[in-house]
Write a structure and sequence with these properties.
CATH superfamily: 2,3-Dihydroxybiphenyl 1,2-Dioxygenase, domain 1
Order of helices and strands: EHEEEEHEEE
Strand order of the largest sheet: 2-3-4-1-5-8-7-6
Structural class: alpha+beta
Radius of gyration: 14 Å
Helix content: 10-25%
Number of strands: 8
Length: 124
């Protein structure tokens, strides 16, 4: 079986946290993961793992300030093409795409249970 879009070879598990600095310190200092990026203005941090192409991302979700919950980011090479392929399969996307200029474009959708799923195209 193959994906209905071209994968970038990267998958990121995302965690909702209540305090970005505290969570980042835990993953860096306690678990020993490598901090790849920290973008406080977007409440986002991402850590490398020993599994090629798999990272752990985390952010503060204003709709869930106590933290908890998770999601999966699917890295794609072309966000628009990936969205079109999934829309042909009945997927509805949530709101407008998010773009962090020069870094990423993100499109959000959900599985049947409401778990957050994201298409992420890296721009840099």
């Amino acid at each position: 079986m193959s994906l209905p879009f071209t994968s970038s070879g990267k998958i990121t598990c995302t965690l909702s946290v209540s305090d970005l600095d505290r969570a980042a310190a835990f993953y860096r200092d306690v678990l020993g993961l490598e901090l790849l990026t920290m973008v406080p203005e977007f409440n986002w941090a991402e850590f490398g793992t020993e599994v090629p192409g798999f990272t752990i991302g985390m952010g503060v979700n204003p709709e869930n300030p106590s933290g908890g919950g998770s999601g999966i980011n699917f890295g794609v090479t072309d966000l628009d093409a990936a969205k079109a392929a999934l829309e042909q399969r009945g997927v509805s996307f949530t709101g407008e795409d998010l773009e962090v200029p020069g870094q990423v474009r993100i499109a959000e959708f959900s599985d049947p249970d409401g778990n957050g799923l994201f298409l992420v195209q890296r721009l840099a």
